[in-house]
Specification:
The protein contains 18 helices and 25 strands. The protein is an alpha+beta fold and 628 residues long. The chain folds into two domains: 399 residues, Metallo-dependent phosphatases (Purple Acid Phosphatase, chain A, domain 2, 4-Layer Sandwich), CATH 3.60.21; 196 residues, no CATH class. Strand 23 and strand 24 form a beta hairpin. The relative contact order is 0.10. The N terminus is likely disordered.
């Protein structure tokens, strides 16, 4: 039956995948801005000078740890010294999770001063804050178990980070002779910051949204706007008008980290948001040693994601990659009027060979370096590529035998196709806060309706259908009212009471965490609620209904006989697996939030005890029935 069942399930899986792909394409397909809304394409036009060009670096999720992968710190120090020394960025953005803050058991969490001192020592010894504009903001790991945001004792970020919350708490502007470029911080960490695991999503209060509205107005005259945060917009719960809408009103590019390449499921996460901006999530330093170079050339933003110590690094700035066009905020028309292809090359060794090809053909003109800078140019005739989408490749080789080829697409008219990846679009453009909320409401409603149907659906008591078995189970008033009480508690009652912060008792609800009289919204709780219903609540009813039916069927099929068949043994194995999973879940709550949370846990431990009590009562009923 196993292989046969798998064969039957494959079409269902394929249909599900197709539905996800189709729905993602319909919901998230990026919209090309009409040409009459394009930004002006007046001079200056890209040529063979270093004018109107600067670049910066982003790195994210450092996770300095006192327990795990101790090489993260030394290699990050080398990155700050060697890599940044070669690139010489105007700004360095460190988008959160500077330290790991996880205990040795990887469940509990707290701010370890030793980790912060390691990070601070790297900053001091490499003097990065003296060499560059260093903007490092907090991530959720930097907020674990932080009770007071303005107290350096509680919040080590204020004492040990490179920026110490000064520049990264307001708009930072770079003023050049050719324009102003603004960096807007989006600090969406919880205040106060509960211990993990219920501190994953970002949260922007009404007060914080008002501050961001103010930042948006401050940057109205900027040539380009760069929003930077630890969290992608999809993982932030925010007050009206919502973070994505707010960013869309100003436009530009939104930079984040946090998702760690979905633990290897997605190598890149980029999305062109339909609200008018480009969102780029960066892979982590922790496991992947990733960083990003971004360049703004004649007000057009280009980027390349790279791995530490892999050279040469190439960033093609003109023509810009047509997959990431933002004509409403960038003067895309300047590309067709440019005289030179422009690209940056960073390498610790001498460049020995550079080749530029368009549509597979080597250009007649040779690329050359501009005034000893990192900028390389190659003359081209844009009239040869007026229509359609073309491919450009740049191959660079250095004296150490390192060789790299960068391939991109470009278009000089309006026929380009914007970047679209189904996984990235779903992950970055979905409002998960809303999705999880409605998912939890739907699953909880189905669960309660199922209990009511089990109770009031009258059927033949001799039937072996599952609905009949459940109906017989629900005839027990104590169990029925108990199950309803636990269901209601799951929706609006406390899940557990414990030390959400050390020394500070809080209450966990499905809709948020109650700490110091304030409710902190955490959308992952709704997802956890869905998991509880599907994995721990529904299966319990089915197991108990089946056991109860086996006992009530008197001598014909009592629990003793029932347990002798292979089907029964398989079912009992699944039941013990269910109990084990439930115990493991309860133990996880105890590890994360203390013994009180482990004991005062209606949604987990008390429900498990309720299920075990009913199981024992069924067995005792069978035993007493056999004695009489």
């Amino acid at each position: 039956m196993g292989p046969l069942r798998t064969i039957f399930q494959l079409p269902i899986l394929l249909v599900t995948v197709v539905c996800v792909i189709v729905s993602t394409y319909i919901l998230y397909n990026p919209v090309v801005t009409p040409s009459n809304q394009w930004r002006s394409m007046n001079e200056p036009y890209p040529k063979d000078t270093t004018d109107n060009l600067f670049w910066f670096v982003q790195v994210s999720d450092i996770h300095i740890s006192k327990f795990w992968e101790l090489e993260r710190g030394p290699e990050f120090k080398d990155f700050c010294t060697t890599t940044l020394g070669i690139i010489k960025p105007g700004v360095v953005l460190v988008t959160g999770d500077l330290t790991d803050a996880k205990s040795k058991n990887k469940v509990d969490s707290e701010q370890y001063e030793e980790e912060w001192k390691t990070y601070s020592k790297i900053i001091e010894e490499t003097k990065v804050t003296e060499k560059y504009v260093w903007l490092d903001i907090r991530g959720n790991h930097d907020a674990f178990d932080v009770s007071k945001i303005n107290d350096p004792k509680s919040n080590p970020y204020l004492k040990y980070s490179g920026d110490k919350g000064k520049l990264s708490s307001n708009v930072y502007k770079i003023i050049k002779p050719y324009g102003t470029y603004s960096f807007i911080p989006v600090d969406a960490t919880m205040i106060p910051g509960p211990r993990r695991p219920y501190n994953f999503a970002g949260y922007l209060t009404e007060e914080r949204m008002k501050k961001l509205e103010k930042f948006k107005l401050e940057t109205a005259g900027s040539n380009s706007t760069i929003w930077y945060s630890h969290y992608p917009t999809s993982s932030i719960t925010s007050a009206s008008p919502g973070i994505a809408n707010l960013v869309g009103q100003r436009g530009g590019v939104y930079l984040s980290g946090h998702l760690h390449k979905l633990q290897g499921l997605a190598d890149t996460l980029y999305a062109v948001n339909g609200k008018g901006f480009l969102e780029l999530e960066l892979g982590d330093w922790r496991s992947n040693r990733m960083y990003r170079i971004l360049a703004i050339d004649h007000d057009m933003i280009s980027f390349t994601d790279l791995r530490y110590n892999q050279w040469p690094a190439i960033v093609l700035t003109n023509p810009k990659n047509s997959k990431f066009m933002m004509p409403n905020t960038e003067p895309m028309g300047r590309i067709s009027k440019s005289s030179h292809i422009r690209f940056l090359i960073f390498d610790p060794w001498q460049i020995e060979k550079v080749e530029v090809k368009i549509d597979g053909k080597l250009l007649a003109d040779t690329a050359y370096q501009v005034q000893g800078s990192s900028l390389w140019v190659c003359r081209w005739d844009t009239g040869l590529y007026k229509t359609g989408t073309h491919g450009i490749s740049i191959t660079v080789a250095d004296s150490q035998g390192n060789k790299k080829t960068l391939n991109q697409q470009f278009s000089l008219d309006s026929t380009w196709e914007l970047y679209f990846d189904h996984v990235a679009a779903f992950v970055l453009l979905t409002d998960f806060s809303t999705l999880f909320f409605y998912g939890f409401c739907a699953v909880s409603l189905c669960y309660i309706i199922s209990i009511l149907i089990m109770r009031f659906h009258h059927c033949d008591s001799t039937s072996i259908l599952m609905v009949t078995k459940c109906n017989v189970l629900m005839r027990d008033d104590h169990f029925y009212y108990g199950a309803m009480l636990f269901a209601v508690n799951l929706i609006c009652g406390p899940w557990f009471v414990g030390e959400l912060l050390r020394g500070n008792i809080g209450i966990c609800f499905s809709f948020g965490l109650l700490i110091n009289g304030d409710i902190l919204s955490e959308c992952m709780l709704y997802l956890q609620g869905v998991i509880k219903v599907v994995v721990f609540y529904f299966p319990a009813l089915l197991f108990l209904a089946h056991f109860n039916h086996a006992v009530d069927n008197k001598g014909k099929n009592n629990l003793q006989n029932f347990s002798r068949t292979w089907k029964s043994l398989l079912l009992l194995s699944f039941y013990f697996l269910y109990i084990s999973m439930h115990l493991y879940s309860c133990f996880g709550i105890y590890q994360a939030y203390g013994s009180m949370a482990g004991l005062v846990s209606p949604a987990s431990l008390w429900w498990l005890l309720f299920v075990l009590h009913k199981t024992l009562s069924i067995y005792n009923h069978k035993y007493n029935h056999a004695k009489h």
